[in-house]
Every structure is written in C-alpha cells, then in structure tokens.
Amino acid sequence: MAEIKTPHLRKTKTSSQLIVNGKPFLMLSAELHNSTLSSAKYMADDKIWQNMKDMYINTLLGSVSWEQIEPEEGRFDFSNLDAIILAAREHGMKLVLLWFGSFKNALSTYAPAWVKKNVKRFPRVHALEAGGKRRTLELISPFCEEGWKADARAFAKLMAHLRDFDGEHSTVIMVQVENETGLLGDSRDRSKIAEKKFNEPVPADLLQHLRSKKNTLHPEFQKRYPHIGAQNDTTTTPTWKEAFGAKDLIDAEEMFMANAFSRYIQHVASSGKREYPIPHYANVWLNFDDPSALDLDGIPVVVGGGDKAGIYPSGGPCPHTMDVYLFNAPALDLISPDLYLHDYETTCANYRHGNQALFIPEQKRDEKGARRIWSAYANYLALGCSPFGIDSLQAADCPFTKHYRLIHSLRRQILDAQANRPEDMLGFFFDDFIPGQKIKEKSWTKTMGGFEVIIERAFVFGKPGPGAGMVIHQGEGKFLCVGWGFNVSFQSTNPKSTFTGILHAEEKEVDANTGELSTVKLLGGDETRSGEFLIMPNEDPDYGGFPIAVTIPARTCVAECWAYSLEEDEEDC
After folding, report:
1. What region holds the Glycoside hydrolase family 42 N-terminal domain (predicted)?
2. Domain check: are 356 and 431 in the same one?
3. Is 117 among the domain residues?
C-alpha cells in the first residue's frame, strides 16, 4: 500500500490518530483569538510565535476568513496566509486553519461584503420575535443554494492553494469547516423558502438511515426521538413535524435545521476535500438539558449554551443531532466539541460516539481546564485539546505550560499506548479545594494488567492540593506514573491473592531527544509509604504544621513502579 503523504487520520484499535509526515502526531494545541491570524505582521511584531513555543505548544488554531481571501468575487488574495504559513514553518509550528466562511458563531459576520449586501442572491434567515414580528438576521439561509456554491468555490480555492503552497511541508494539518453553525434567536428559519421546505417530507435517505441504524445512534438521539423506527410507524414520507415533533415541535424544527446546515457544510467540505484531502472537522456550540450539570462558578447560565434550540444554535451538531451530520456530511472526518462549562468527561464520551476521534478545538485556558486534558488524552485518546485565546497569555503565567511540557516529553509513550494499548491508560485530575465548599471526592480506578489501579488525591498533613496526570501499564506489573498531586495504589484482581503492594519504584527523567527514560533515584520508604502506595507529590506539599517533612516536592513528575501480589497456601500463613 502506497504511503499517504498528506496529513490524515489512521484507524487505531478503538479510535484514530493524526499522521503527519508519516508519523503519529500528538497535538499540543491552542487556539488564537479570532483576529490574530489575520495579520502576519501582528504575529511577528508581538513575538507570538516564540511565546507559543515557550508554552510547549506545537499546533496553533487560527482563522482564515472568506472576506479576507476573496474581498471581491473571483479575486483571491493568499498573501497574508502564505506569510503566516512560512512563519509557522520557520518556528516549527503546525497549523489548524478555521474556515470562517458562511457561518461563524451562528452568524455570517465573516462573509465578504459582496455577499452580505446582496440579499436577492444570498437570502437571509428570518426569525420570529415575541409578538410574531419577523426579523432579518445577519445569517445566510442554509437553504440558499447560491450561498453554498459561492462558499464552496472559495473553500476549494483555499484548499487547492494549501496543496500547492504547503503540500510538501504539511505545516497545515487540519481544517475546520465553518464555525459553530446553527441559528440563534429562533428554533428554525422562517423565510419563505424555509417555510415551504419545513412542510415537505423528510428526505427519504436520511429517514431510512435513522430507522435502520436506530440501535446504534447516539444515546442522546435515542432519548429525544425514541419513536423513530418504531414498529407501528407505517408512515413512509412523514413531514418534519410528523417524524420528529411527537414530544415538542421545537424538536422537529431543530432537526429540520440540522439537516439544512449539515447538507450546506457537506457541499463546502467536499469541495475542499477534492482539492486537498487533509482532515476536515466541524466544531460545536454545545447545548445543555440540565443547568445543574454545568461548571458555572458564578458565570451566568446562558454562557453555558442553552436548554432550548435557538438559545443555543438550533441545527448545530449537538449530541442529539450528531447522527444527522455524520450521515449528511461524510466529508467531515470528525465532529468536535467546544468545551468550556460542560462536564468534561460526559462531553468527551459524547463526541467519541461510534469510535470517532476526539479533538477539542476550544476549551478553558485556566488551571482547571489544563488539569482536564490528562483525561482527554488518556481516557478518550484525544488528538489534541486547545485552550482558547492563548495569545493573550505569557508562557510564564500560562497554566498549560507545565502540563504541555510534561506531555511533550512523554508524547512517544502516550501515542504508543493510545494506538496499541488504550485499555492500559488512565488519566485523572483533582481540583482545588475551595474554602467553605464541600467537594465530593472520588477516586479514579481502572483494571490494568491484572491489578485494579486506584488513584487518589496525594496525601498531605495539611490542605489537600490539586493534581493531574496519567498512569500507563507497560506490562508485567510495571506502571509509568506521570503528573503530580496523586497517590497510586494497587489491588490484585486474582481472587486467590492475599497481599498486593509495590515491589519497587524509581523516579525517572526523560531524554529530550530520544524520549528514553533514565533513573534519577530510587523511591521507597516515605515515597511509597513502605510499599502501600506511591506518592506523586505536587510542587508545594502542605505539611500542616507537622514537624517532619515526609513528602518531598515534585521534581521530574515521572516515575515507574512495579506492583506485585502474593498467593499464600495454608502452610504459608
């Protein structure tokens, strides 16, 4: 089989990995502010490139807007983009380009002026306000054929240019098609063409797919639309209301818009894929069903998305509409959540549906967000996790710097386990204790190599500190422990075992060039509580006034330990 030279996704045991220049590539990614990549001069003058490298970032996400590359119809200008790509290449940085074409944050604000001003050719979405008044939105209707045709031509030109300008170098490794699609302010488009289409039958191919795959569709779809494919459903050509509006008309209106937006995106994405088939993805402005599940911490609940279509973008690829996108837009390689306030574990699991690869294009850039990436990489085999607005932080103050430094040093081991032994990885995190606030502490457990591996917050005499990391089973009871602020203990899964403990432990350091581990010192006694559990301390353990400093501060944050168990006969006891 001929080697694929362009960046691509390669199937692994339970997911996919990004292959760049013929090798698996772990993105230590971050997203720039929306306008930063619009100016190569700004990127250079503000020394952004070096600051990003100092954070151990290897992949930057930044926007390329339709209005910038095609300011006049048919006239394309890639001069700024070329300068950006050359600068990224010079600094050893990979790029993920975000195509702000027809849709950005459920609006069309990045479309060219010649598109925005011509409502005859590019009709807008209309929404109903309170009182039934119709309002024109800054949003191209997804039913506008001229819209997707013009967008697709521009996107194809972009991808063809990337192929010619960067194909030999693979500086650009992925492309996002549009941004957070959907409709805000109403549950569906109320324009004349949309009104007509809403009363037409659901496309037969989509309905047949959903019915035939009912048992493997996303659990959130099945929960919201349990009647799809029911035995007593004999209607062959139902309307949107008949097919999806059994519980609430808004459910039908949202599916109607999901079908429209996903087909629009397929037109655009497929035009680019034909020119240069690097991975394409769509990102998601998430919804919520239960606001109590959000991590708001004093932030207004509306920031979390919304519980009704139209409060969050109606028709975007949320978990319950994802299967429509997967069917209608096969040119997309994956669908990726913008993950700020939702439960991290639940959202990661939602977007691993069907063993699709996980990529988080936007997330919190604070310490709380940084701790969670360990779970994404280890438990959900993430391609990358991208704190948003990274360029307005300095490396010395950025919470991601220390996390990315450690993950970068062990990227070979992580990539190997992701591809070949995903069952042998466990990622975890522990947040700060907040004074006066009760935290329901949980341990993280997973069975690996014949042992139940138990991760708990690191032991201290005083105030418990935060922690994060991962454990990778390396075979025959040997475990690689990475991170800080946690204890790891083991329990044999052999019912005949009478004792489980730590046989041996060593602190390790990593060779920056080869990735090989070497021993710094042996760990025993206090560091393993005499073989009971290995302590991976944080940087400043709290001794709580205890006179003996039994826990030393974290140093390399890398260790190997060997678990063992005993089986005793009666004569041995």
Report:
1. 47-244
2. no
3. yes
Whether residue 444 sits in one domain with residue 408? no
The CATH number of residue 174's host domain is 3.20.20.80
1 found inside a domain: no
Judge whether 303 and 356 are in contact, CB under 8 Å: no
In a domain, 2, yes or no: no
Six-digit token string for 306: 């919304």
**Structure token pair of residue 379:** 């438990």
Q: Sheet of 16-20: strands edge to edge?
A: 8-11, 16-20, 23-24
Domain endpoint, select from 361, 391, 420: 420
Cβ atoms of 390 and 414 closer than 8 Å: no
List Cα–Cα distances, 507 to 72, 147, 345, 523, 565, in angstroms: 61, 59, 30, 6, 22
Non-local CB neighbours of 370 within 8 Å, separated by 6+ positions: 387, 399, 400, 403, 468
Q: What CATH number is associated with residue 517?
A: 2.60.220.20
Say what angle helices 400-409 and 367-379 make with each other, to 10 degrees: 30
Q: How far is CA 207 from CA 204, 229, 248, 520, in A?
A: 5, 9, 19, 61
Q: Residues, the chain, total?
A: 573
Total of domains in the chain: 2
Inter-CA distances, 52 with 84, 195, 382, 389, 536, Å: 14, 48, 20, 12, 28
- Domain check: are 431 and 395 in the same one? no
Q: With 0.90 as the threshold, say if the pTM is over it.
A: yes
Residue range(s) defining the domain that contains residue 473: 425-572
**What is the distance between the alpha carbons of residues 472 and 483, in angstroms, rounded to a whole number?**
12
Nearest 5°: the CA angle 385, 374, 476 is: 135
Predicted pLDDT of residue 200 = 95
- Structure confidence by residue, pLDDT tens digits, 224-281: 999 885 544 555 689 999 999 988 999 999 999 999 999 999 999 999 999 999 999 9
Q: Token match 């600068």: residue?
A: 87
Could you tell me which of 185, 8, 38 has the C-alpha nearest to residue 110?
38
- What is the pLDDT, as a whole number, of residue 231? 43
533 inside domain: yes
- Alpha carbon distance 166, 82 (integer Å): 9
- Contact 68/80 with Cβ under 8 angstroms? yes
**184 CB contacts (<8 Å, ≥6 apart)?**
106, 107, 137, 310, 311, 312, 313, 314
The residue among 28, 80, 77, 86 whose CA lies nearest residue 57 is 28
Domain end point (choices 395, 420, 445): 420
